[in-house]
Amino acid sequence: MKLKISYVILFVLVTAFCAFGQSSVRKSKSGKKPNGVTIAKRKPVKAKPDPCSSVVTETDRMTGETKRFTEHISVSNEDRTSLLITPTKYERSYGGSDSYFEILLLDNRHYPICVQRGSEVIILFEDGSRVRGLTFSPNCEGMSKLSLNASLIIKLRLTKVSTIRVYTSYGYIEADFDPDESEQMLQQINCIHR
């Protein structure tokens, strides 16, 4: 019995000595191993979130047509009205595509504000330039849409949006984008138009 205890104590001492000796080689004060090789410390690499991860692609299995869109951007005003805008690209199976904003205006009780077909939409960019367009579908029951031509898509891919004004039957709703919302819009337009 005493012999077994002696072996166990000897084993523990040898293991501790070997472990201590190895750790002292790895952790020298100069940061070098005994053979002169410098130990480089690794910095953890943080993965950047993919801004295009919110892009959804839906394909109609009967027609083969594809709709690419992102999550909506919600911009609220001091009077608690809201503009919800969704950049969307619709690709036809026989070629060609359409790009548009789906726009939904909500009043302070979160009921839709009616936008008639042909209502004016003005987009003001951070560089001071502006673009005007007309909606091509009403949103009294759903989203109204603003068609985006090629030159407007290029402008949206390069310049941040500052303000969007949408005319309604009762006046207009104007939404000022904060820097984060402007950046989100820029990224989303670039994601659906890769």
Description:
With 194 residues, the protein is α+β, with helices and mostly antiparallel strands. It folds into two domains: 1-40, no CATH class; 51-192, Immunoglobulin-like (Sandwich), CATH 2.60.40. It has three helices and ten strands; from the N terminus they run αββββββββαββα. Strands 1, 2, 3, 4, 5, 6, 7, 8, 9 and 10 form a ten-stranded antiparallel β-sheet that branches. It is globular and about 85 Å long. It starts with a helix and ends with a helix.
CATH class of the largest domain: Mainly Beta
Kindly report the average pLDDT value. Answer: 78
Low-confidence stretches are 22-28
At CATH level 3, the topology of the largest domain is Immunoglobulin-like
Structural class: alpha+beta
Number of separate domains: 2
Q: What CATH architecture of the largest domain do you see?
A: Sandwich
Radius of gyration: 30 Å
Approximate helicity band: 10-25%
Q: What string gives the helices and strands in order?
A: HEEEEEEEEHEEH
> Which band does the percent of strand residues land in?
25-35%
Number of strands: 10
Please tally the helical runs, counting DSSP H or I stretches of 4 or more residues: 3
